[in-house]
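Subject: complex prediction, re-run

Hi both,

The earlier run crashed halfway through, so I resubmitted it with identical inputs.
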Amino acid sequence: MQPQIEHYLEQVKGQLKSLSPQARAEEVREMGVHLQALVEAGRDAGLGENEAVKAALAQFGSYRKVGRELNKAVRSGEKHRLPRALSITTNCMIGLNSLGLISSVVLLIFAAMNWPSSAEILGGATAMAWRYGISFANGILAISLALQLRKLRPWAFWMALIYHCNWTLIGTVKLYDEVAKISQNPSSMATNVFFLAINTTLSYFPGLTFLLLLMLNRKTYLKLAYDKYKG
Amino acid sequence: MGRNLSKNDVPGLVLAVLGEGSCHGYAIAREVERRSKDLFRLREGSLYPALRQLEQEKFIVGEWETLGGPARKVYRITAEGQAELARRALEWADYSGAVNSFLGGSHAATN
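This time it finished cleanly. Structure:
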């Protein structure tokens, strides 16, 4: 194969980030065969070797554009085959956990500022429902995700365990809350806020870490989804 | 003078070519040019993304074959691809019919 063509194919290969190494090699191999056929056709039409190679490469166009379009085509296919239920579950978890993480950061700031009065706000009925609700919903979503993807079951077990421990912590927080109310002790109130911060972090952090890992390892995740989809 | 095809048109033309029989990438590109009497110039750079998209959508399948020369990936249309081709053909007939009623000359307008 001509060095210009080899160089071009290497550049295209470098662009194909959303493809597995095997798919990348296959893609480049197919293009190589095509380019060779174009060069031969150019030679048959009376072009010199160099002109024929140049014409063949011009016919393919910029390696960046070819790579970009191929990546896009592969990604659109992945989206197409991703089961809907899986996509809904994941999106719900991302939304819920992102909101949760923001609220836990706010709580940590309150705790750091030793702001006991915040406990009154955070201990209110809406905040309590939010905390219990999120923890419960996260557990359900984790189980749902694990049921859809068998290989994620060990993860779901650890997440369920953490959420269970968190429920125990919620009970402790409530106890502290009652004690603080009775004693009107500012330091107890601050401790209470600190516990709340840990509690909320535990509510969202495992789920978010889990999702972050899925995002970072998107190809594996999509492959798992695809295998599941294929049955 | 040839016209470069829009990338949205490429998958439909590829399906139409494969509807006539199995082909490899190079032959698909040449067939598009031949059937359009060199009016359409299919840039190879837009052919492979279209092939990949059609493969992902299961409208075509590709297999490596060696028939007395270098190995080539030969594509054939699937049943889903045939259905998609029929759908696109119907859609195009409706669209071109509507455009013809405006641009098809005075006969089209009065008929």
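The beta strands of chain B are 3-4, 23-24, 40-41, 60-65, 72-77.

- K.
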